[in-house]
Design brief:
Helices cover 49% and strands 14% of the residues. It is an alpha+beta fold and 221 residues long.
């Protein structure tokens, strides 16, 4: 335990001396064995000084004294650009809160948590397909009336959006159940709600897609 604390102190000093706000585990690896570094990193996370963004990627952080919430000391966009620099990737403006990192001839699939935005990777092999997908999803053409479920799932995947039920959702579901109502939401409807909450669809867009989806399902019965 004592050796872990000593290593955590050494790592803490090393991190504070570093410029920037992103720290890679590989940069701290020379300070101790793999297991020692892992334990020390957990200590720094527990103390609110580091926040894990992804495998081997950490951000300098601080703990709010009133809420005790641990957050990065800089915004998600700054973190994203620093991560790109560390990973030797080029930043492409993805728009709509997305961050696109071009890794050239390297294949990278590291999952990163940078605020509410999604992180996408492109390389020499998939750049053309990714660009085509972005163009298709951002097209101003009318929303589809066929295969609507696949479109919604693709839109959610593109923006990195997932449905997370809120307390209000759970309350409404309980009330519906007690009232004996058999109406149930489904995965596609939930994704539409999530896309609306994330600002990726307007209320009218969501309504149009929902009507198209339900109409398609009814016709398929």
């Amino acid at each position: 335990m004592g050796s872990t604390m000593r290593l955590a102190d050494r790592m803490r000093q090393s991190i504070r001396r570093r410029s920037g706000h992103v720290v890679l585990r590989a940069e701290l690896a020379p300070l101790g064995s793999a297991s020692q570094v892992s334990r020390a990193l957990k200590t720094l996370q527990r103390d609110g000084e580091l926040l894990r963004l992804g495998a081997g990627v950490y951000a300098k952080a601080r703990r709010d004294e009133s809420t005790h919430e641990v957050t990065p000391v800089v915004d998600a966009e700054t973190l994203g650009r620093e991560v790109a620099h560390k990973l030797k990737a080029k930043v492409i403006d993805g728009g709509d809160g997305t961050l696109v990192l071009d890794t050239g001839d390297r294949r990278v699939s590291r999952k990163l948590a940078l605020g509410h935005g999604a992180v996408h990777y492109v390389n020499d092999r998939n750049r053309r397909a990714f660009t085509a997908t972005r163009k298709k999803l951002s097209d101003t053409a009318p929303f589809p009336t066929a295969d609507v479920g696949s479109y919604v799932r693709g839109l959610a995947a593109f923006h990195g959006v997932r449905y997370e039920p809120t307390a209000a959702d759970q309350w409404a579901e309980t009330v519906t159940s007690l009232a004996g109502d058999d109406v149930r939401s489904g995965p596609v409807q939930d994704l539409l709600v999530a896309l609306k909450r994330a600002g990726k669809l307007t209320k009218d867009d969501m309504a149009t897609l929902l009507v198209n989806y339900l109409r398609e399902r009814k016709q398929g019965v």
